Amino acid sequence: MDIRTLPEAERQIYNRIRDRYSLLFDSLRVGEHTVRLLKVADIEEMLDGKDPFADVSEFPFWIKLWEAAMVLAYAVTKLPDPKGKSMLELGAGLGAPGLAAAACGFDVTLSDYEDIIMDFQRVSAAASKLDRVQFQHLDWLAPPELPAFDYLIAAEVLFREEFFAPLLNVFDQYLKPGGRILLAHDARRKCLPLFLEEAKKDFHITISSQKLKKFGEPITIIFNQLRRKGD
Ligand SMILES: C[S@@+](CC[C@H](N)C(=O)[O-])C[C@H]1O[C@@H](n2cnc3c(N)ncnc32)[C@H](O)[C@@H]1O
């Protein structure tokens, strides 16, 4: 990726981030489109084989592109009729699923509560020539007023029980009648079944899984679709 091809504003953002992190662009093929994803270059080195979920207070979660996000990115490309449909990605981090959806034609808003990661998203969107993506600072604990969306999507957001009630509230606030929520999580996340049990009171939930290999080790990603009861 030639940084000189970025628009001036995003080039400045890129240079600001580069002062703090060594960077690289990953490519994600979405149909005819290639999404360019700005990432921190030495993340696996930083992790050094440790599971970051072992100590959630220590790790800047937004920094890594989680395998679940890749599965979700693929899933959104299979959704029908993107034209005119709005989609909000919650806890988007690097924003691969949302950017993939934007490449397919959805009207996408990427959100997170870490402003630094939204700078990564802005550069990635510009590098991918996706100029209609919106960016929204959104803390699940203090969700702002926003119009409702046809789709809410999220990967690896259920890692603390204290997020259950705020996230259910966020789902309720931002999902249009008849809308769908797509979630993807590593099967090792202990919180996920507990959350789904809670969510079952208000949503019909489907579940499927996909097996991947990470450094030769098998991992399973759980994929859920939620639809409001009564819709
Ligand atoms: C494990 S990361 C997953 C990132 C991305 N979805 C992925 O799968 O690659 C969790 C994300 O949730 C965001 N997050 C954590 N607490 C949040 C909150 N209270 N409100 C909004 N986002 C939050 C973090 O900044 C981070 O980007």
TrEMBL record:
InterPro entries named in the record: Methyltransf_16 (IPR019410), SAM-dependent_MTases_sf (IPR029063)
SUPFAM superfamilies reported in the protein's UniProt record: S-adenosyl-L-methionine-dependent methyltransferases (SSF53335)
Record carries keyword Coiled coil: no
Source domain of life: Bacteria
Keywords, comma-separated and alphabetical: Methyltransferase, Transferase
A molecular function GO annotation: methyltransferase activity
Keyword Phosphoprotein recorded: no
GO process terms (BP): methylation
UniProt-listed PANTHER family: HEPATOCELLULAR CARCINOMA-ASSOCIATED ANTIGEN
Name under which the protein is recorded: Methyltransferase domain-containing protein
Organism: Candidatus Desulfatifera sulfidica
Lineage: Bacteria, Pseudomonadati, Thermodesulfobacteriota, Desulfobulbia, Desulfobulbales
